[in-house]
Amino acid sequence: MVLLVAHLLVVAWITLRPLDVPWVSAANLEPLAGIKADLERGPEQAARQIGGALLLLAPLGVLLPLAGGRLDVSPLASLARTVAAGALLSLGIELLQTGVPGQVVDVDSLLLNTLGVALAHLAVVPAVRARLRRRRSSGRPRAARFREEAPQGSTPKIPRVGIAP
Description:
Layout: H1 2-16, H2 33-40, H3 43-56, H4 60-68, H5 75-97, H6 107-137, H7 142-149
Helix pairs in contact: 2-3, 3-6, 4-5, 4-6, 5-6
C-alpha cells in the first residue's frame, strides 16, 4: 500500500506540475495522431515519448492487484478491474491537466498509460499469484506445523453447577 501511494505521488508530481514553456501545443483529441507524430520525428524521439507514456502508470498494473491481497480471483476479472482503474486514473490526470499551465490533454497518453497498466499486469500478476498460491498450498512453515501436531491433551470438563432459584 505504501508503494502504491508513493507511486501515485510521483505520478502526480510529474504530470500535474506547471511547466514554464514559451508555447504550448494544442490538445490532441484524435486517437493515435500523437503516436503517429512521434514516430515521424524518429525512432529515438518515438521511443522516449511512447515508452514514457507506457511506463508512467505501468507499476499500477502490479501494485493495485497486490494491494487487494486476494489470491483466488479470476485472472480475467483481475485484469479488467486493474485496467479500468488505470484508465480512470489516467483520465483523471488528463482532466486535471487542463487547468495546469504548460500541460495539455493528449488522448494518446490515456491510451498508452492504460496499455502500460495492462501489459505490466499480464507480465507479472498471474505468475506472482500462482507462486503465492503454491506456497500457501504447500503448507505452513515447519515450526507452525510442529506446534499444531503436538498433542494438546483432552479437553477439560467443567462440572455442572445447578442454577439457584
